[in-house]
Amino acid sequence: MKFRIAFLLAASTLLASVSAQAQFAKPEDAIKYRQSALSVMGTHTGRLGAMVNGRVPFDARVAQDNADVIAAMAKLPWQGFGPGTEGGKAKANIWTDAAKFRAGGDKLAADAAAVAAAAKSGNLDQIKAAFGTYAGNCKTCHDEFRNQ
Amino acid sequence: MKFRIAFLLAASTLLASVSAQAQFAKPEDAIKYRQSALSVMGTHTGRLGAMVNGRVPFDARVAQDNADVIAAMAKLPWQGFGPGTEGGKAKANIWTDAAKFRAGGDKLAADAAAVAAAAKSGNLDQIKAAFGTYAGNCKTCHDEFRNQ
Lengths: 148, 148
Prior knowledge:
Two copies of one chain form a homodimer.
Chain A: H1 2-22, H2 27-52, H3 60-73, H4 93-96, H5 98-121, H6 124-145
Helix pairs in contact in A: 2-3, 2-6, 3-5, 5-6
């Protein structure tokens, strides 16, 4: 019985791993993908942040455009951190503490969706609140999982 | 009168140029941005293409996820080709024939939105038709505006 459960667990882990790998032909493709997605997300985070911080005048339409891109991008990078894709600025604990890293990614995606929802309201105070929560993820995750 | 129109045209061109430039602090930021957006778009185009071509089994949910990313990304790269951002694989005619390049980008974005709309139907034949039109843009534009 124990053997059977262990076997099923191993088989399902293998399957999940094969499926993640199959998304990218080579590890460097996965690295390029996650770096590209994070870069685009960073650009639009910076633009919305400038509006939230008052460095750029608030424009509800532009805020929403940026928030929509952030919400779309925040779901993507994590699939590029599959087994065997170490590299770039990624720290080793992304793979040794994969559950925590994955939970951080899921939280970021949810918080980014909340920014997009707030942007739909056109209310700057709501956007500021949601953006603050969203942007907090960036630093937390970079401090823990990214080499400077 | 002629002078006044010429002046207004020059002023509005300057304004548009300043506004495009203001999106990126340095030309290399614009180049990195457009390359990142195109790279993410390419990854998801490849995934949806594999489904459309039957190399991967059709999964309506996965098709829609990919189509949504394609539609979001297809709007982005063009802002990264502002004045003074020559570089990468970009040919000079992107700037000397800017209106044609811009029209191509707008068409791609519209065709990508049609792919996302088709994906919502869950009908593979509709997706195939829309994807064919969308993917045709890639080759046309690369042949004309990208160094190999």
